[in-house]
């Protein structure tokens, strides 16, 4: 199973550059296509929205086509769309290719959680923290080098297209997983689970995750352009974004380690509180100490991200139920989170500054912290054998 874990990491590394790499490139893309800030925000909002909407049919597609085969299709789409976007000659083709990137990320990301639940039932929290760390590492790499690549080649296209390579690596990694998975496990079992629409805990998890992703994708889109407006050059602004993604990555294993049982409310509150402190500092004085400010925001949202990804699995008894819970949480959370980049862009166009956007982000951070006391698992008195094994493994 170690080989499968390595493949999960390789796939995760390729699931965020298609979104994160756009932030350092936005000023160049805006200039070339004559986009408004609102229109430019769609380059992040569209993938985020699709990560929610396509979570709904993903389990059905897995049953019809086969889980591993569907993940392969999604990763192939991600790689192809990344290349297409680099050659886009119009804003329309730019947005179409971006939608393809979002669709590939959405389907692959939804189904991998079920694979983790099935393959590592006694180490769900640990593997999810590794997966989240790899997602963040992919974000950090793309944030760090995309601006430099664009400057080296004097344009945004190479900086965007180079991330097709990470998609191809992810595709090759999952081919290895699929070749080693028995056919009986590549399709869903006969037992089907409805999404937990009527479950209060599921809604609270989805709303918490929505707030966290709202903040994350708002900053991923606009942090670099924001600091360019504050007087930083493009290289310095890209470095601030890279530090943001790096702190996000570091938080993933830290909070995965700190959270040692299924009632994760204390570490959730700690991570949300750290993020809120950073958001308030950004609101009051964004230029006073940007390195500390972005580290606080990213460390808090990174910890919350890892824990929020684990919450649906805490409430599921098996891989199929985990897919249903995960699909519901991703649907609700990413549809809401897609508004983050869009609203920040709209407020920037309407007001001429990013200050109103920072008020909005701080309010969302406060709401995220307020939700944490209500995130106790809804079945604590009837822990399944799988959950008991998870608890035993994470307590040694």
UniProtKB/TrEMBL annotation:
<dbReference type="InterPro" id="IPR020846">
    <property type="entry name" value="MFS_dom"/>
</dbReference>
<dbReference type="Pfam" id="PF07690">
    <property type="entry name" value="MFS_1"/>
</dbReference>
<dbReference type="InterPro" id="IPR052524">
    <property type="entry name" value="MFS_Cyanate_Porter"/>
</dbReference>
<protein>
    <submittedName>
        <fullName>MFS transporter</fullName>
    </submittedName>
</protein>
<feature type="transmembrane region" description="Helical">
    <location>
        <begin position="42"/>
        <end position="62"/>
    </location>
</feature>
<feature type="transmembrane region" description="Helical">
    <location>
        <begin position="94"/>
        <end position="116"/>
    </location>
</feature>
<keyword id="KW-1133">Transmembrane helix</keyword>
<feature type="transmembrane region" description="Helical">
    <location>
        <begin position="325"/>
        <end position="344"/>
    </location>
</feature>
<dbReference type="InterPro" id="IPR011701">
    <property type="entry name" value="MFS"/>
</dbReference>
<feature type="transmembrane region" description="Helical">
    <location>
        <begin position="266"/>
        <end position="285"/>
    </location>
</feature>
<feature type="transmembrane region" description="Helical">
    <location>
        <begin position="128"/>
        <end position="150"/>
    </location>
</feature>
<feature type="transmembrane region" description="Helical">
    <location>
        <begin position="202"/>
        <end position="222"/>
    </location>
</feature>
<feature type="transmembrane region" description="Helical">
    <location>
        <begin position="234"/>
        <end position="254"/>
    </location>
</feature>
<feature type="transmembrane region" description="Helical">
    <location>
        <begin position="356"/>
        <end position="375"/>
    </location>
</feature>
<feature type="transmembrane region" description="Helical">
    <location>
        <begin position="162"/>
        <end position="181"/>
    </location>
</feature>
<feature type="transmembrane region" description="Helical">
    <location>
        <begin position="69"/>
        <end position="88"/>
    </location>
</feature>
<feature type="domain" description="Major facilitator superfamily (MFS) profile">
    <location>
        <begin position="2"/>
        <end position="380"/>
    </location>
</feature>
<keyword id="KW-0812">Transmembrane</keyword>
<feature type="transmembrane region" description="Helical">
    <location>
        <begin position="291"/>
        <end position="313"/>
    </location>
</feature>
<dbReference type="InterPro" id="IPR036259">
    <property type="entry name" value="MFS_trans_sf"/>
</dbReference>
<keyword id="KW-0472">Membrane</keyword>
């Amino acid at each position: 199973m170690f080989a499968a874990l390595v493949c999960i990491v390789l796939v995760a590394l390729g699931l965020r550059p298609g979104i994160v790499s756009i932030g350092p490139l936005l000023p160049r893309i805006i200039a070339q296509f004559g986009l408004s800030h609102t229109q430019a925000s769609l380059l992040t909002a569209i993938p985020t929205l699709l990560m929610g909407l396509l979570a709904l049919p993903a389990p059905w597609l897995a049953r019809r086509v086969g889980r591993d085969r569907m993940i392969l299709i999604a990763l192939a789409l991600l790689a192809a769309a990344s290349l297409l976007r680099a050659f886009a000659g119009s804003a329309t083709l730019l947005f179409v290719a971006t939608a393809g990137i979002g669709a590939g990320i959405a389907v692959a990301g939804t189904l991998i959680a079920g694979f983790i639940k099935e393959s590592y039932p006694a180490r769900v929290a640990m593997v999810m923290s590794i997966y989240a760390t790899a997602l963040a590492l992919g974000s950090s790499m793309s944030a760090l080098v995309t601006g430099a690549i664009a400057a080296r080649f004097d344009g945004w296209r190479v900086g965007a297209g180079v991330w097709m390579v990470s998609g191809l690596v992810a595709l090759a990694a999952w081919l290895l997983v699929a070749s080693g998975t028995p056919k009986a496990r590549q399709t869903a079992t006969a037992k089907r689970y409805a999404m937990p629409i009527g479950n209060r805990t599921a809604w609270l998890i989805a709303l918490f995750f929505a707030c966290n992703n709202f903040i994350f994708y708002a900053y991923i889109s606009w942090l670099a352009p924001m600091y360019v407006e504050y007087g930083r050059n493009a290289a310095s602004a890209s470095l601030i974004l890279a530090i943001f993604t790096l702190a996000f990555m570091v938080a993933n294993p830290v909070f995965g380690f700190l959270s040692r049982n299924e009632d994760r409310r204390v570490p959730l509150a700690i991570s949300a509180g750290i993020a809120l402190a950073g958001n308030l500092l950004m609101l009051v004085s964004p230029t006073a100490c940007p390195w500390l400010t972005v580290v606080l925001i990213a460390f808090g949202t990174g910890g919350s991200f890892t824990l929020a990804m684990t919450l649906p699995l805490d409430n599921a008894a098996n891989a199929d139920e985990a897919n249903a819970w995960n699909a519901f949480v991703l649907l609700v959370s990413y549809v809401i989170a897609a508004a983050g980049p869009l609203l920040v862009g709209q407020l920037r166009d309407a007001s001429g500054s990013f200050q109103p956007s920072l008020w909005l982000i701080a309010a969302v951070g406060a709401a995220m912290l307020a939700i944490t006391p209500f995130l106790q698992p809804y079945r604590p008195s009837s822990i399944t054998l799988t959950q008991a094994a998870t608890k035993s493994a994470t307590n040694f």
